[in-house]
Design a protein that fits this description.
This protein is of the alpha/beta class. The chain is built from eight helices and six strands. Helix 5 links the parallel strand 3 and strand 4. The structure holds farnesyl diphosphate (FPP).
Length: about 240
């Protein structure tokens, strides 16, 4: 829940914070390799960072946070790494959903659910159901997500519904067919680990987002680094194509 003292303690100002933050959590593998540890160790530490950043976002009064946990291309990774990430997602939900609910967070998964295990799917659905009527931070985790597929599927669905006379053909009708239907557009996109790419994440939704790249690997990201990024955002002059 929004906490004015917390905002002030970190030297932030309420009215210059972004409404919707997107995060590409990158660098788990390199962080682990630098420590002579398996890549999965980096993902485990990365999952702990997720917990902190979600709670900070909630206290800062950020309206929506969308994080990229697993892309449609990530299935190509070694099986043990894929299994670890999926297990971490399940563990995260099991351990954190009560706290998220207490903090009035609305949890949702975006992406193609058809590839997920029955058990994870059930946990996701229960978590979404439990938190759906909350009114605080809207926390979205992108799993088996790819933005081009999202856009194409929305376009195909719209064409089909339009042909069947079920919808108007306009921007709203298109946007309600995206996974992010009902969410505001992304204001601020953060990517960790020094890579300067978008990697098929929220391509439509970041049209006017401010971009922030940090060299820190995701496991080294924390509330202090998040605050640094938010302070940088607060000084941006957003013009949305105007002057
Ligand atoms: C990118 O680092 C990270 C991922 C593909 C996985 C992200 C998953 C987690 C942080 C854990 C589970 C998430 C939640 C929501 C609890 P990389 O492996 O591509 O790193 P590299 O570029 O250094 O190899």
């Amino acid at each position: 829940m929004k906490d004015i003292d917390w905002i002030k303690r970190y030297g932030l100002e309420e009215d210059t914070l972004p409404g919707h933050v997107g995060i590409i959590m990158d660098g788990n593998g390199r962080w682990a390799r630098n420590r002579h540890m398996p890549r999965t160790f980096g993902h485990k530490k990365g999952a702990e960072v997720v917990r902190d950043i979600v709670l900070s976002s909630s206290k800062f009064g950020v309206k929506a946070l969308t994080i990229f946990a697993f892309s449609t291309e990530n299935w190509r990774r070694p099986k043990d790494e894929v299994d670890t990430i999926m297990t971490l997602l399940s563990q995260y939900l099991r351990n954190e959903i009560a706290a998220l609910n207490e903090n009035d967070v609305v949890f949702r998964v975006i992406g193609d659910r058809s590839g997920l295990s029955k058990m994870l799917l059930q946990l996701i659905e229960e978590s979404e159901e439990l938190t759906r009527n909350n009114t605080g931070l809207r926390f979205n985790v992108a799993i088996n997500y790819g933005s081009q597929a999202e856009i194409l599927n929305a376009a195909f669905a719209l064409a089909k519904d339009y042909k069947e006379g079920k919808t108007a053909l306009d921007r709203e009708a298109f946007e309600t067919r995206l996974y992010t239907s009902g969410l505001p557009m992304v204001d601020f996109l953060i990517r960790t680990s020094g890579e300067l790419r978008i990697s098929n994440f929220l391509l439509y939704q970041i049209a006017y987002a401010e971009l922030y790249f940090t060299d820190a690997y995701w496991p080294d990201f924390n509330t202090e680094r998040y605050v640094e990024a938010l302070k940088d955002y607060s000084h941006r002059n957003r013009r949305f194509g105007g002057v």
